[in-house]
Amino acid sequence: MKNWGIKKRVLFLALMPASVIAFLLALHFITSGIQSLEDSLRERGLAIARQLAPASEYGVFSGNHDILQLLADSAMKETDVTAVTITNIDGAILAASGKSMGPPVLSDYKAGLFIAVADQGEVLSFSAPVSQSQTEVNDFLQDVAVTQAAAPKGKILGRVNLELSRENTRKHKQMLIFNSLLISLLGLAATALLALRMSRDVTVPVKRLADAVDELGRGRLDVRVEEVSGGELHTLERGVNAMAVALQAAQERMQERIDAATERLSYQATHDALTGLVNRREFERRLEKALVSSREDGRVHALCYLDLDQFKIVNDTSGHVAGDELLRQLTVLLQSKVREADLLARLGGDEFGVLLENCPLEQAQIVADLLRQTVKDFHFVWQNKAFVIGVSIGLVPITQECESLACVLSYADAACYAAKDLGRNRVHVYRIEDDELAQRQGEMNWVARINHAIEENRFRLYYQTIMPLAATDNEGAHFEILLRMLDDQGELIPPMAFIPAAERYNLMPAIDRWVVGTAFGQYWKILPKDSLNQRHTCTVNLSGPSLCDDHFLDFIKRQFALYHVPYDHICFEITETAAISNLSRAMDFIGELRSHGCRFSLDDFGSGLSSFTYLKNMPVDYLKIDGSFVRDMVDDPMDAAMVAAINQVGHVMGLKTIAEFVETDAVLEKLREMGVDFVQGFGIERPKPLEDLFQAALPLEAGREPERIVMRPLEQRALFPQ
């Protein structure tokens, strides 16, 4: 019943009580009718017996058989009477009519003083005494089988016996049952029809409401209910329709918002938020379609990969807000120089891409140079500061020979960086035989090798002694940590074979972290236990990208705390170029670690154009004189003058000087004469594995030179520090 619908429930509630009532009424009527039929049959039998017994008195008394036979035949004419016998007091039959169906009611005729009634199945038997005088019969005294009468007032002469058949009574009983059941069924049918009609009046509108609600639940909000009912159902119909109208209006409003949000998200997914140009994802999708049209239809397109020059200066000096405004203004200029059919996209940072569809290479070169000139002529002004930037453009023709999207983008990237390497602010066209691009591709191959080396722990640390040329107090060991890499066969690879690729593809921060962590972890194993009272100097090289890493300074501090390395035992070496190109970050980085006791060395000093200008404000402890001046200073007076000048300036500023690339005794003596503080190079000591320091104490005690290797001037070192 839990799963029944309203219609079934209404019919059940209507028919169940009616069925019970009909059954009870039918049972009552049948029971009462049957009892009435039985009583009627009994009464008629008693009445016949009462009349026949007195009438038989004379015949029994006189023995007149004819009179008695006539009385018996007359009684046989009464309804349902099947047999009549009249006997004397001794039980002898004086007259009989019909065929008896059972034995006499009383076996002792002499003793019978009452009208007896016996139920013998198919017949109802009666036996009444024939008295000599009138007898008063009391029909109200009766038990199950015998009806008592008043005691006779005269002598018993005989008995009258008669049998009444139940055949007609049975037929009447059957008719009574049939009629009662028929009437009940007709009543139930009428009740069912009435209940059905009533259920329709209720359930049909309710079902319409239920169906409408179900459809609304399925999302069909245009469904309406026909308002044809009355009373509460009409209120429900009107309410459901009002709810549907409200839901439909709400859905339409929501759909409008969803469509707007979808359109906005679709736009955001395919466009750059800052410039409004398509983003890299959408650009690559359109570029893929262009590649397909080239392969299948032979169309010729071109790809321009633009990378702004000197854009970082704007961000560093005026902030990212200025840089963002520059990009927005430049976007407007670039869009005005390309066709509507061309696709201009911002690929990230200060990089742009232009897809020139159906454009041969000659025309693409004209467009690319126009874009370059537009950027060059653009003067950006921010807070009374004027900036002039440039752009390096890599141009790649898209033809049937192009392999894949990744290849085309790789070619464009390599061509763009080749343009930067050749002097910036120029267009470089990709060609298979291009030497510059071949070098670029070689560097890109190094990227994979470097990543594998990091994953497989194939980097090794070496060290090279930095020797003092004069005795110093409490000066312990002084050496520089150098990096080497093992190839797949376990052979050593010098740093300058892979460092340029690592610097170009931003792998140096990861390498620097490995070097710092490994060097610090082995530091206490390297130092002899009896020399801890001396201040040793372990020099670790850092790259320019690491100085720009916002998290690198915190990483270094964690390594100091983790390995308990004294701050004043570590000297970080950075190149002059890295320091100048990231001046503000370098100053902050150096200042923070020097405040804890670290020292800093400026490598390759003299190679830059503005060295002395920036040196005044650079808080370093050592100047490393560029080896290109040191190597030939004995034979080249200009180199010697540069070394002397750098050494003198350094001393005036209170800095120690280190000369690298010292490879001959003549150079060493010349440097000693000039008063250079420290020397380093193959002529002093070749780089050795860091593990060698586990075997022996460091040789550089104050004022003592290590065993040097005397080399000819033409011998160049095969391995040198990064």
What can you tell me about this protein's structure?
It comes from Sulfurimicrobium lacus. Residues 443-701 form the EAL domain. The chain crosses the membrane at residues 12-34, 176-196. This is GGDEF domain-containing protein. InterPro entries: Cyclic-di-GMP_PDE-like, EAL_dom, EAL_sf, GGDEF_dom, HAMP_dom, Histidine_kinase_BarA_N, Nucleotide_cyclase, Rev_trsase/Diguanyl_cyclase. This protein is α/β, with parallel strands linked by helices and 722 residues long. It has 4 domains: 6-171, Beta-Lactamase, CATH 3.30.450.20; 224-270; 280-432, Alpha-Beta Plaits; 457-478 and 528-681, TIM Barrel (Alpha-Beta Barrel). Helix content is 49%, strand content 19%. Strands 15, 16, 17, 18, 19, 20, 21, 22, 23, 24 and 25 form an 11-stranded mixed sheet that branches. Strands 2-1-7-4-3 form a 5-stranded antiparallel sheet. The chain has a 5-stranded mixed sheet with strand order 9-10-8-13-14, sandwiched between helices.
Short description:
This protein has 722 residues and is of the alpha/beta class. β21, α18 and β22 form a beta-alpha-beta unit. 33% of the residues are buried.
Properties at a glance:
disordered C terminus; 11-stranded mixed sheet; Beta-Lactamase; alpha/beta; 25 strands
* CATH first level of the largest domain: Alpha Beta
Described by its quaternary structure, the protein is single chain
Instruction: Report the biggest beta sheet as strand number plus sense, adding barrel if it closes.
Output: 11 strands, mixed
Q: What name is given to the CATH topology of the largest domain?
A: TIM Barrel
Fourth-tier CATH superfamily name of the largest domain: EAL domain
- Anisotropy-based shape: rod-shaped
Determine the fraction of residues in helical runs and give it as a percent range. Answer: 40-55%
Strand-residue proportion: 15-25%
The number of helices is: 21
Cα distance, first to last residue? 88 Å
Low-confidence stretches: 107-111, 139-152, 697-722
Total strands: the figure is 25
- The CATH architecture of the largest domain: Alpha-Beta Barrel
Structural class by SSE content:
alpha/beta
The number of domains: 4
Please give the radius of gyration in angstroms: 63 Å
How confident is the prediction overall: mean pLDDT?
82
